[in-house]
Design a protein that fits this description.
Pfam families: Zn_clus. It is built from ten helices and two strands. With 266 residues, the protein is mainly alpha-helical. The chain is elongated, with a radius of gyration of 21 Å.
């Protein structure tokens, strides 16, 4: 990246060691310890974005985290969420079903009818894997499963947990477009997608999970918990400065909390 178009950030070694970096190439700390200095740069923002707007963005994130803490505290006293209706007829609730699992095509159509979303395609990540035996054709394929989970998240989770920018998320997961300014194969949006699938799975009741995904809820949760933890580790979620990674981590925490307790978002 041309120097005039880039802003140099703390190098990877200093970030990992949590020490101050002078941002030279190589930096003084790396020279002193005889290690390779891997320079980290970001594009230079248009004038006006790096000052008050950055502060405003951090404040907005802080406010959202505070609201999330309040929501979790409220959920700890009640198994019912604070949506716009009751669990039996509310707008944000997926109806329960005691019927046997449907075929993938019927299941996709049912989800479409429930959420009134236009048909779209979810990009399947390169490292996603099918874990279903070939002798179970009634189980939905991974792309169909993820489409269903995105619909569930948008309908049942997003109206309550406002931690993501819905238009950007829809463009990424439903239209196959890049997420925000990330490159198409960047691991950060992939981590967010995994957290969305995990959160959506956590919001389902057992009978809903059987009806829509043809699997027990715990089986689905275990799969997406593993996928999310692997994706977060891949993007160094403990030391990263990506807001998207923090959002994915918050979703994973709420999902894990719902999984441990017998609570649901409805």
């Amino acid at each position: 990246m041309p120097r005039a178009l880039a802003v140099r950030l703390t190098c990877q070694a200093c970030t990992r060691r949590k020490v101050k970096c002078d941002k030279k190439s190589p930096c003084t700390n790396c020279l002193k310890h005889g290690i390779t200095c891997v320079v980290v740069e970001r594009p230079r923002w248009p004038r006006g974005r790096s000052g008050n707007q950055a502060i405003s963005r951090e404040q907005d994130l802080s406010d959202r985290v505070a609201k999330l803490e309040q929501l979790i505290e409220g959920l700890s006293h009640s198994k019912r969420g604070t949506g716009n209706g009751s669990s039996s007829g509310g707008e944000n609730t997926i109806p329960s079903s005691g019927r046997s699992p449907k075929s993938p095509s019927e299941r996709a159509q049912t989800t479409e009818d429930l959420f009134h979303l236009q048909p779209s395609v979810i990009r399947q990540s390169a490292d996603s894997r099918e874990r279903h035996p070939e002798n179970h054709p009634e189980l939905p394929s991974e792309p169909v499963r993820r489409r269903i989970l995105v619909d569930i998240f948008l309908r049942q989770v997003d109206p309550i947990l406002k931690v993501l920018h819905r238009p950007s998320l829809c463009a990424y997961l439903l239209e196959g477009k890049p997420y925000l300014d990330y490159a198409p194969e960047h691991p950060v949006p992939a981590a967010l997608a995994s957290a969305v699938f995990y959160m959506a799975s956590s919001s389902l009741a057992e009978d809903q999970c059987l009806a829509l995904l043809a699997e027990r809820k715990e089986t689905v949760l275990a799969r997406y918990n593993d996928e999310t933890m692997t994706a977060l580790a891949r993007v160094d979620f403990l030391v990263t400065n990506h807001l998207t990674v923090l959002q994915a981590f918050v979703l994973s925490l709420v999902s894990a909390w719902l999984r441990r307790g017998d609570c649901k978002i409805s």
